[in-house]
Amino acid sequence: MRECISIHIGQAGIQVGNACWELYCLEHGIQPDGQMPSDKTVGGGDDAFNTFFSETGAGKHVPRAIFVDLEPTVIDEVRTGTYRQLFHPEQLISGKEDAANNFARGHYTIGKEIVELCLDRIRKLADNCTGLQGSLVFNLLTGAPLVSSVESITSLQLLFLAVILPRFRGLCA
C-alpha cells in the first residue's frame, strides 16, 4: 500500500491543510468525525483514501498528518472546527507563544522547544506505515522560523533519511 505523510507548518500551512483534509474527506466520502458511511464498502474497489488516511480499530479514518505552529490560535481553529474529531490530538502541535515576527526568536529559542516533539510525531506516523512513499510539506516559504529550526538540526532531505528510511532500508535493497 502506498502511503503519504502530510506536514503542515505555520499559519499558511495549517490553513491550506485544513482545507485539503476537508476536500479529501468530501472526495472519499469520509464524514467529519472520520467514520465511513455504512453504505460505502471498505476494500470494495476504491481504496485510494488509504494513501492519506489510516484506519483505527474502531473503523475511524485518521489523516496521516501533523499540524505544527508556535502560536496556538490557528491550530485551535482546527481543534474547534467542523473536522475537529477527524484529527488525533497528538497530531496538533502548538507552542504557547508566537515568535512575534522575530525570526531569531522563532529559530533559536521558541522553535527549538518543539522540534524534537515534531520529529517524534513524524517517526510515529512513519512507523505506522507499511509502504511509505513520501511526504507533503505545506508551509509559507517566506516565514516559518520553525522550518529553519528543523533544517538546522538536519536538512529536510536528511530528516527523512534519518527518521523514516532506517525502518524501510530492507525494502529498498
From TrEMBL:
It comes from the Eukaryota. Keywords: GTP-binding, Hydrolase, Magnesium, Microtubule, Nucleotide-binding. SMART domains: Tubulin. GO terms for molecular function: GTP binding; hydrolase activity; structural constituent of cytoskeleton. One of its GO terms (cellular component) is microtubule. Residues 49-161 form the Tubulin/FtsZ GTPase domain. It catalyses: GTP + H2O = GDP + phosphate + H(+). GO terms for biological process: microtubule-based process. Belongs to the tubulin family. Tubulin is the major constituent of microtubules, a cylinder consisting of laterally associated linear protofilaments composed of alpha- and beta-tubulin heterodimers. Microtubules grow by the addition of GTP-tubulin dimers to the microtubule end, where a stabilizing cap forms. Below the cap, tubulin dimers are in GDP-bound state, owing to GTPase activity of alpha-tubulin. This is Tubulin/FtsZ GTPase domain-containing protein. The lineage of its organism: Eukaryota, Viridiplantae, Streptophyta, Embryophyta, Tracheophyta.
